[in-house]
Amino acid sequence: MAQSTSFFFLIALLAFAPICFSFKSNYNGNLYPQYYYKSCPKAQEIVKSVVARAVAKEARMAASLLRLHFHDCFVKGCDASLLLDSSRGIVTEKRSNPNRNSARGFEVIDEIKSALEKECPQTVSCADILALAARDSTVLAGGPNWEVPLGRRDARGASLSGSNNDIPAPNNTFNTILTKFKRQGLDLVDLVALSGSHTIGNSRCTSFRQRLYNQSGNSKPDSTLDQSYAAQLRNKCPKSGGDNNLFFLDFVSPTKFDNSYFKLLLASKGLLNSDQVLTTKSQASLALVKQYAENNALFFDHFAKSMVKMGNISPLTGSKGEIRKNCRKINSS
pTM of this prediction? Predict the structure, then answer.
C-alpha cells in the first residue's frame, strides 16, 4: 500500500509536466505568476507537493480544494475570508448555508501554510494558496494546467451574509445564477465552463432532494430529470433522512476531470438543478454545453481562462489586507 501511494504521488507530480495555458490578457495588473520567484522560489513546488499527497490519499479532495477557491472568490473577492474561523468579532463563512457541513479541505490548506511558513515566513498569502491548490487539484484529476497570477493578500474579516447571498445555490434559477456570476464580472461562458468543475466531486442528498419528490411544489419530480436516473437516486435519497448521503456529480467518471459532465447534462442526467438548467433555460448556454460535450479541448481551454478570470475577482494587493501567519485567524495587531 505504501509503495502504491508513493507511486501515485510520483505520477501526480509528473501530471504538471504538460505545457500549461497562459492568458496574459486576463491577468489583473497587480497579479502575476512570477510574484514569489524571489521571495519564496519554492512556493509553488511546496503547494503542489502537499496537494498531491492529499489527493493521493483521497481522490475526492481535488474537488473539495477546487470548490474552496470558488466559494472564497464569490464572497468579497479572492481574499481567503472563507478560511477564517469565528473570533474577535469575526463570524466565520464556514457557517453559511453553502458551506456548513459541506466545505472541506481546510486541513490541507493548513498543512500547505505550515510548510510555507517554515520555508519563507509570512510571505505567501492564504488567498494565493487557495488559487494554487485549485489549479493543482484540477491538473491532478486530469484537467487543464494554467499559470496562476499571484500576489493576493488576505482579508482581515469575513462576510457570513455575503456567503449566504452571493454563492450560487443548487436550487437557484438559471437567471439568478447568471446574475450572481455577472455581479462578479463573469459572463455566460464563465458560468458554463466553471460549472464543468462538477465533472469531479460529490453532492449531498439535501442539495437535490426536491428534484426527486417536489420540484415545483406539486409533489411531482422534476420533469427535466431522466426518470430512470431519478429512480436510482431515490434509493439512497429518501423523502426524509439521509441528508448527508453523498452522490457523484458525474457518475461516469467521478474522479476524472473531463467533459463527461456535459454529456450527462444532454442526457438529462445532471444531478443538481443548477446543472440541468444549463440545458433547459437558455439556448446560448445549451449551445455551449453541446460544444463542450463534443470538444474536450475547447472545454479545457475555456475552463482555464475562466479560472484565471475568477481568480482576479477583487483581490487585495499592495498595502491592503495582510499576509496571515495562520490561515484560520487574522494576525495579532
Answer: 0.91
Rounded to 10°, the helix 126-140/61-73 angle is 140
Contact between residue 272 and residue 203 where contact means Cβ atoms under 8 Å apart? yes
Q: Is 302 among the catalytic positions?
A: no
List the Cα angle 139/62/86 in 5-degree steps: 130
Closest alpha carbon to 282 in 292, 290, 271: 290
Over residues 2-22, the pLDDT tens digits come to: 444 444 444 444 444 444 554
The pLDDT of residue 303 is above 80: yes
DSSP state string for 159-205? -HHHHHHHS--TT--HHHHHHHHHHTT--HHHHHHHHGGGGS-EEEG
Cβ(186)–Cβ(309) below 8 Å: yes
What DSSP character marks residue 29? T
pLDDT digits 0-9 by tens, 194-234: 999 999 999 999 999 999 999 888 889 999 999 999 999 99
Measured CA to CA, the distance from residue 242 to residue 108 in angstroms comes to 27
Q: Which of the following is catalytic: 69, 71, 198, 302?
A: 71
- Phi first, then psi, for residue 153 (nearest 5°) are -115, 170
Q: Rounded to an integer, what is the distance from CA 137 to the centroid of its chain?
A: 9
